[in-house]
Design a protein that fits this description.
Number of domains: 3
Radius of gyration: 27 Å
Strand content: 15-25%
Shape: elongated
Structural class: alpha/beta
CATH architecture of the largest domain: Alpha-Beta Barrel
Number of helices: 17
Distance between the termini: 35 Å
CATH superfamily of the largest domain: Aldolase class I
Helix content: 25-40%
């Protein structure tokens, strides 16, 4: 719900244009469309689907997105060049709502060394191209590229010129991520107050993250009167990236009383959108990334864990579950206390008496000293060893894989089922992991859909150990298993079995937890 007393800040998403310019992030048109659909579901106000003039595939993707997503405004991106404008206009002509987004540089360093044009030339080009574009669309966003490194008086003169020709939105980009928040405030305030017609248009900020200030600078722009912020999912983009959509949205949501501003972003879709973009663009998310990073809502410190178990607000200012983020607030490591271990085991229906807890705690600390983090399946196994009970529904006892270049890969696994002994299963696939998964699905009838696999190297050299994190899905609920091994196929197999075990244990206990981390 929106509050009529708060300013609405439009979220202009450029994941599919500026974000795709990240080295290695280029995606095919089909994937662009999938991401665009999720962005609309997330609640962004404007989508910039690409750069239509750059290729036929890019043009087709922008065109299809414009036709399909009728509930979101589409921005056609173009240089201040007639050919670019024509392509952007054609590509977006079927959109229910659209705008033309024109840009030209304003800093002397760009004019002198890149464009090789005078200030007068740039103003003339900007005037002519805005007037040309105005024939086709009502909404024209004009970006004075590299505004924050430009002469202030020239920026004001350029903005006055394009407003006179019909520009309706003025974007003052921090193209190199150079500005300080105070400088952003001064720039926006000066242009709004001093440019003729400046009080008749809307303002947008497009901040890059080269010095790690994209979100802070975007908030400064909001405080200086901007009503639109240009963002990318996971903060991807050229060099160090752009202002992160999820970070900006949650700053505005968490501090909306102080900022007196809000967005239409649906927090429940944040995590799914982040994961989708990460998968589609093959860009991993840093563990410590705010909001969506793996560690963003995890706590190893015993003091923090104790506080969280008593009241989440002691160490959390946002509700991860409201953002669709798995509830994984406690990570078990060498700093964890007995309370956290007892609580985690109880989540799986494992109750220990004080003497057993002490034994488990001692073994847990030994394991934590070796590998920093103890996974849930390891903790359950420790508890089983100390109580002579197999708490895990299934244990992977042995794995063999035959790989090669000329034939299908063949795998054999031996699994011990609680209360039923051991059995061996064989399977094949195009790759060793596919063959192993085939075996595991035979061994575990309750096995859920294998959704995602993350592999992380934990060391270097020939004896390097790898961490595998497998996510499975059943009835819309996600379960995650983790394993650390020097053999990454074995690690992935153990992580898959662990994820399936979490599903089974959760079902037995009647838990309603959306995700259990292993």
């Amino acid at each position: 719900m929106t509050d009529t007393n708060k300013r609405h800040i439009q979220i202009f998403d450029t994941t599919l244009r500026d974000g795709e310019q990240s080295p290695g992030a280029s995606i095919d048109p089909e994937r662009k469309i999938l991401i665009a659909r999720q962005l609309a579901k997330l609640g962004v106000d404007v989508i910039e689907p690409g750069f239509p003039v750059s290729s036929s595939g890019e043009f087709a993707a922008v065109q299809q997105i414009s036709r399909e997503l009728q509930n979101v405004e589409i921005a056609g991106f173009a240089r201040a060049v007639k050919g670019d404008i024509d392509a952007a206009v054609r590509a977006t002509q079927d959109a229910a709502r659209r705008r033309l987004h024109l840009f030209i540089s304003s800093s002397d360093i760009h004019l002198n060394y890149q464009l090789r044009k005078s200030r007068a030339d740039v103003i003339q080009i900007a005037r002519e191209m805005v007037a040309y574009g105005k024939q086709f669309v009502n909404e024209i966003e004009f970006s004075a590229m590299d505004s924050t490194r430009s002469d202030r008086e020239f920026v004001i003169e350029l903005v006055e010129a394009v407003i006179a020709e019909g520009a309706t939105i003025i974007n003052l980009p921090d193209t190199l991520g150079y500005a300080l928040p105070g400088e952003i405030t001064e720039l926006f305030t000066a242009v709004r107050q001093q440019a003729r017609g400046g009080d008749k248009v809307r303002y947008s900020a497009h901040c890059h993250n080269d010095l790690g200030m994209a979100v802070a600078n975007s908030i400064a722009a909001v405080q200086a009167g901007a009503t639109q912020i240009e963002v990318t999912v996971n903060g991807i983009g050229e060099r160090a990236g752009n202002c992160s959509l999820e970070e900006l949205a949650m700053v505005l949501d968490t501090r909306k009383a102080a900022l007196e501003a809000e967005t239409r972003i649906n927090p429940a879709e944040i995590f799914e959108t982040s994961r989708l973009v990460s998968r589609m663009m093959h860009f991993p998310i840093a563990y410590n990334k705010p909001v969506v990073g793996r560690n963003a809502f995890q706590h190893e410190s015993g003091i923090h864990q104790d506080g969280l178990l008593k009241n989440r607000s002691t160490y959390e200012i946002m509700d991860p579950e409201a953002m669709g983020i798995p509830r994984s607030m406690i990570v078990l490591g060498k700093h964890s206390g007995r309370h956290a271990i007892k609580h985690r085991l109880a989540e799986f229906g494992i109750e220990l008496d004080p003497a057993q807890l002490e034994e488990v705690y001692g073994a847990f600390k030994d394991q934590a000293d070796k590998q920093k983090i103890v996974t849930d399946d390891q903790l359950i196994r420790i508890a089983g060893d100390k109580t002579d009970t197999q708490h895990d529904p299934y244990v992977l006892v042995d794995l063999q894989v035959l790989a090669g270049t000329q034939r299908s890969r063949v795998a054999s696994i031996t699994v011990r089922k609680s209360g039923s002994g051991e059995r061996t299963y064989t399977g094949s696939g195009n790759g060793p992991l596919e063959a192993v998964i085939s075996c595991i699905r035979q061994a575990i009838p309750e096995a859920a859909e294998f959704e995602d696999l993350e592999l992380h190297s934990l060391s270097t050299g020939e004896d390097a150990r790898g961490e595998a994190v497998v996510t499975v899905v059943r009835d819309g609920q996600r379960y995650r298993g983790t394993s650390i091994q020097s053999d990454i196929v074995l690690a992935a197999a153990e992580a898959y079995v662990a994820a399936c075990n979490q599903l089974i244990l959760s079902a037995r206990k009647g838990t309603v937890d959306k995700v259990v981390h292993s």
